[in-house]
Amino acid sequence: MDPIHQFNISKLYILGHFAGREIAITNSALFMFAAVFVIIGGMMVATAGRSLVPGRAQAVVETTYEFVAGMVRQASGEAGMQFFPLVFTLFSFILVLNMFGMIPGFFAVTSHIVVTVFLAAIVFLTVVIYGFWHNGLRFLKLFVPSGVPVYILPLIVAIEVMSFLSRPVSHSVRLFANILAGHITLKVFAGFVAMLGGLGLFGWIGALLPLALTVALTALELLVAFLQAYVFAILTCIYLNDTLHPGH
Amino acid sequence: MADRRSPDEEAALSARLKQLGERIHEAGARRQQEAEELREDEAKREDAQSNLAKALRLSSEFVAGVLVGGLIGWAIDHFAGSSPWGLIVFLLLGFGGGTLNAMRAAGLVAKGGAAGKKD
């Protein structure tokens, strides 16, 4: 009945040792592999027919493409399409992992902050490295808004730098916290059903309330699972937009 | 001639023609209205979706700013021995950055330089 137990990492297969540490395939890694397999396999199978009038599976893949492409174009214009592979990969990876987490018995990979921090770090480092490579030192104009009086400029620059540095934190914590909290809430309410159910007839009647809540929460979590992937992807687009147009 | 119609018939025919024209016009207007309603519905649904996404952003943006500010301040104090000034200054800066992030997420402050152009 421990609501945290579902997040335990267990080693499934030990590959070997490196620098005194065990390198193992964990359940987390297994589900990441499974997600990549499902995404790539699904895409390849669905688009294998290449029919002009798409079937169901092909329509899903095409809609996903259009959805992400529209998101990238809206946030960072046509020039942002060079980042489309990155955004699409992140979106589909997080979406499939979140949806995997909603299947009973499956492991919610994105409920571990290590994973989300790494994903956010990819975006952050892409922004910084590509920003300097593409714009040179003009990239620093990102921190200097135009039209600000000189006497408050140092303060504004400090706050802008702070705002920039807090991005990867909020980017990763949001995804991790939402998935973690959602899964714990679900587990706790489902636990109530089992506990009350053990109390006899009155318990059964009482258990109806948490049962209804569990059903409702499952629907909400499905929405959150999609929305978090969407938010992660759209923020990636917004951040990447800075590398293309720093000064404005 | 065979297809010569009496004035009465002529009048009835033109009345029917007029009626038909009106009906076509009405149907067209109705269809246009339906299409517009459909488009509005869709826009509203998309709006609701992006609004929900926005709401999810707000809280974490602010918290992250304060957290990062506090962390940097603490680290500076720890290594430079300037306690407690680093923590105070960077916590305040982090507060500013978090507020800026939250306001940007809410769309109240335009990105970058555009904010300055307004005043």
Give an account of the 3D structure.
The complex is a heterodimer of chains A (248) and B (119). The model of chain A has no long low-confidence stretch (mean pLDDT 89). Chain A has one domain (5-244). Chain A is mainly α. In chain A, strand 1 and strand 2 form a beta hairpin. In chain A, 69% of the residues lie in helices and 6% in strands. A two-stranded antiparallel sheet of chain A has the order 1-2. In chain A, helix 1 (27-46) packs across helix 3 and helix 2 crosses helix 3 (84-102). The relative contact order of chain B is 0.08. Chain B is 85% helix and 0% strand. In chain B, helix 1 (7-80) packs antiparallel against helix 2 (85-106). Chain B has one domain (7-113). Chain B has 119 residues and is mainly α. Chain B contains 3 helices and no strands. Chain B has helices at 7-80, 85-106, 114-118. At the A-B interface, helix 5, helix 6 and helix 7 of A face helix 1, helix 2 and helix 3 of B.
Comma- or semicolon-separated keywords:
heterodimer, A: 248 residues, mainly alpha, two-stranded antiparallel sheet, 7 helices, B: 119 residues, disordered C terminus
Mean of all residue-level pLDDT scores of chain A:
89
Overall mean pLDDT score of chain B?
Answer: 81
Task: Note the beta-strand portion of chain B.
Answer: under 5%
**Regarding quaternary structure, how should these chains be classified?**
heterodimer
Helix-residue proportion of chain B = over 70%
Low-confidence stretches of chain B: 113-119
Structural class of the helices, strands and pairings of chain B?
mainly alpha
- Terminal CA distance of chain A reads 54 Å
Got a strand count of chain A? Answer: 2
Shape descriptor of chain A reads globular
Anisotropy-based shape of chain B:
rod-shaped
